Amino acid sequence: MVYDRERKVPALLKNGDLAEKLTRERAEFVKWHLLIQESQRKAQ
């Protein structure tokens, strides 16, 4: 499960689905994608 620490609930994906029933592979992909977005924001 991908967890939103600020909201203290399962994370929401862009399409509005909860991230509570993701496969491990999909969760790793989402995590990787979020880390890339965060690093791009910091670089700006």
Would you mind describing this structure in some detail?
- It is a single chain.
- It is built from 1 helix and 2 strands; from the N terminus they run ββα.
- It has a two-stranded antiparallel ribbon.
- The chain has one domain (3-43).
- The N and C termini lie far apart (30 Å).
- It has 44 residues and is mainly alpha-helical.
Can you give me a brief rundown of this structure?
The protein is mainly α and 44 residues long.
Q: Give the percentage of residues in beta strands.
A: 5-15%
N to C succession of SSEs: EEH
Compute the number of helices.
1
> Gap between N and C termini, in Å?
30 Å
- Indicate the low-confidence ranges by residue numbers: none
Number of strands: 2
Shape: globular
Rounded radius of gyration (Å): 11 Å
Bin the helical content.
40-55%
| Tally of individual domains | 1
Overall mean confidence score, pLDDT: 78
- The order of strands across the largest sheet is 1-2
How does the helix and strand content classify structurally?
mainly alpha
Main β sheet profile:
2 strands, antiparallel
List the helices and strands and how they pair.
Elements: E1 3-4, E2 9-10, H1 24-43
Antiparallel strand pairs: 1-2
Jot down its keywords.
44 residues, two-stranded antiparallel sheet, 2 strands, single chain, mainly alpha
